[in-house]
Structure formats: C-alpha cells, structure tokens
C-alpha cells in the first residue's frame, strides 16, 4: 500500500487532497487574509474534483448500488461533523443551523442534482430512463424522513416554537436511523436490482462492458483518499466560511444563506459524480446519488444532532417555516410525478431546476 501511494504522489488526485488537508491543519481557527482565502478556496475546488475521482474508482470496484452509497454516506458523515462543530462554537445564531443545512441539502439533492441528472440524460437521449421501483422507494423514504424531522416540529405543542421536546427528538432520531438502515438493507439486499441502471426499454443492466475493475489494494487506497478529500472539502469550507459570512453580510443577505452556500460546496462531489454518471447514460446511478444523499443527510444528521444536543446550550430549532414548507411540498409532489413513470423528459428536469432556483432565490430574499 505504501509503495502504491509513493508511486502515485505525483498524481494530482493524490497530492491535492493531502496538501488540502495540510493547509487545513495550518489555517484551522485562524483569520486569513484575502490571499490565504483564495489559496484555501483553490485547494477546496481541487479536493472536490479528487473526491469525485476516488468515488468513481471505489464504485467501479464494488459495483452499484454500493458505490453510490459509499459517497453519500461519506459526505454526510463529515457534513454532520461540520454542523456539530459550528453549533458548538457558534452560540445562539446556530440554533437553526441543523434545520437550514439539512433542508438545503434536501432541496439541492432532490431538485438540483436530480434535475441536473435528468437534464443531461434527456439532452443525450431525449428521454431519461430509470427504475421507478427503486427510485420511488427512495423518494418515499426521503419524504417520510423530511416530514418526520423537519415538518412535525412546526406543529407539535410540547414546546413553544418549531422544536421537539426531548422525548419527541429522541423518537424522531431513532425512527430516522431505523428507516435509513432499512433502506440500506433493501438497496443492497434482495431488491438490489431495483437500483441498477436500466436501458431505454426499462431492462436492468446487470453487467456492463467497461475497463477492468481496479485491484482491491487500489480501491482501498482510493477509499482512504476519498475520506481525506472529503475532510479537506468540509474543513476548508469551514475555513473560508468567515469570508462567505462577510460577503453575505455585505450583500445584505440573511444569515441562513451561509448554510446554503456551504451546503452547495459540500455537495459538489456528489453533483459532479451524478453528472458524470448521467453523461454515461446511467441516470439511475445519478438518482441513487441524489436521493441517497438526501436520505443520509436526514437519517444520519438528525440522530447525531439529537445526541449532540445533550451538550449543546439553547433550543434546537428543527421546524420549517411557511415558505420552506411550501417548497418541500412542491418538491415532494413534483418528485412523485417525475418518478412514477420511470421515464422523464426535459420538462421534468426543468421543473426540478426551477424549484431549486426558487429555493435559492427565496433563501436570499425571504
């Protein structure tokens, strides 16, 4: 393994994540000048591209749907760490950070990544084909998790404001984790074929003709470098967040918009990976990434935040506001109408992308 790493140190997909992590170690918790912020941002972009490369290597080795699952879970675990870190150090202004970040992740994945994947697929083949059984099950799980964790707190009466009582939060966390675990078992077990790519006739493509899969040692190295790259992405995103906050304040945008920007940065690896899969006519893999990421963002974040709330001061605001509820409802309805036929056109892609644009615009101008 060490020899393989030494032989690849000149490869940018290896060197950039390692340098990005070193930069993170030297800049963490420090106020950076403009030049330092630019350098960190440049390596942040490089780490995103490297993460996509290593995720594709791992996916090629383990096959689908495991490859999509690896990237979705890896990104979400580190995203959770970022949220908890910011909540611990941010004080009262971070009471709604978990809600804003999770909701932004749901809107970006279910409208942005999904819409972009359909757009690429329909531009290539006019009609994008996918498996409605697996995609529909994933969408149903996302909607259930979102309603349980983000909608119900707005309407419960045990606590004033959009928050759960400790018992309600514990139930939501346990239910979210159990439902996510059940989905993973279904996706990787007896119904694995529901999440495999299909051809234009809806037939599952079990085996593809492509390059020889990488060796186990190379895949293991890429898995490690994927985690390193994702740490660099999230850590460097936090490092440049003061500059983002200053820019948001200078533009007279609400504080919650910072969470949208950081969510966009963190989800870049999945966005690029989904786009590449769609360009290879593997829209199902793109949808696995989109909906799997949304599901992991809720199913793993809420339990982690519930556990962290034991040590956090102040209330934990999880309930969505009126505008957010409308956007989530529109996303759920549009998603169902897109998924049920198993085939989508440019119109469905446009509908999802318009919903994403509406979310970003209303987040900037509530």
TrEMBL record:
Compartment list: Membrane
Alphabetical list of Pfam families matching this protein: Na_Ca_ex (PF01699)
Residue ranges crossing the lipid bilayer per the database entry: 12-29, 35-54, 66-90, 102-123, 135-155, 167-186, 218-235, 247-268, 289-312, 318-339, 346-364
InterPro entries: Alkaline_pH_Ca-Antiporter, NaCa_Exmemb
Keyword list, A-Z: Membrane, Transmembrane, Transmembrane helix
GO molecular function, one term: potassium:proton antiporter activity
Top-level lineage group: Bacteria
Main localization, broad class: membrane
Record protein name field: Ca2+:H+ antiporter
Organism name: Micromonospora krabiensis
Lineage, uppermost ranks: Bacteria, Bacillati, Actinomycetota, Actinomycetes, Micromonosporales
């Amino acid at each position: 393994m060490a020899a393989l790493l030494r032989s690849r140190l000149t490869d940018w997909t290896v060197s950039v994540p390692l340098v990005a992590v070193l930069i993170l170690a030297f800049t963490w918790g420090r106020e950076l000048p403009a030049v330092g912020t630019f350098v960190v941002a440049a390596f942040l972009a490089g780490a995103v591209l490297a993460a996509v490369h290593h995720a594709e290597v791992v996916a090629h080795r383990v096959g689908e749907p495991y490859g999509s699952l690896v990237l979705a879970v890896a990104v979400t675990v580190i995203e959770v760490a970022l949220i908890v870190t910011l909540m611990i150090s941010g004080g009262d202004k971070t009471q709604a950070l978990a809600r804003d970040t999770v909701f932004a992740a749901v809107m970006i994945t279910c409208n942005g990544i999904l819409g972009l994947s359909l757009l690429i697929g329909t531009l290539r083949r006019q009609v994008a084909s996918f498996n409605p059984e697996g995609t529909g099950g994933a969408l149903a799980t996302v909607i259930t998790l979102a309603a349980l964790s983000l909608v119900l707190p707005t309407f419960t009466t045990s606590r004033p404001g959009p928050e759960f009582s400790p018992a309600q939060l514990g139930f939501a966390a346990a239910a979210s984790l159990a439902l996510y675990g059940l989905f993973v078992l279904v996706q990787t077990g007896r119904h694995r074929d529901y999440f495999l790519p299909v051809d234009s006739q809806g037939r599952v493509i079990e085996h593809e003709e492509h390059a020889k899969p990488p060796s186990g040692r190379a895949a293991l190295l890429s898995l490690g470098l994927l985690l390193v790259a994702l740490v660099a992405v999230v850590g460097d995103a936090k490092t440049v967040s003061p500059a983002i906050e200053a820019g948001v304040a200078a533009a007279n945008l609400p504080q919650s918009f910072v969470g949208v920007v950081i969510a966009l940065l963190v989800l870049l690896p999945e966005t690029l990976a989904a786009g590449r899969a769609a360009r290879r006519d593997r829209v199902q893999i793109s949808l696995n990434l989109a909906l799997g990421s949304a599901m992991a963002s809720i199913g793993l974040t809420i339990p982690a935040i519930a556990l962290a709330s034991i040590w956090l001061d102040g209330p934990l605001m999880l309930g969505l506001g009126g505008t957010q509820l409308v956007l989530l409802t529109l996303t759920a309805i549009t998603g169902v109408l897109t998924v049920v036929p198993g085939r989508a056109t440019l119109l469905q892609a446009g509908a999802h992308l318009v919903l994403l644009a509406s979310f970003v615009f209303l987040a900037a101008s509530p």
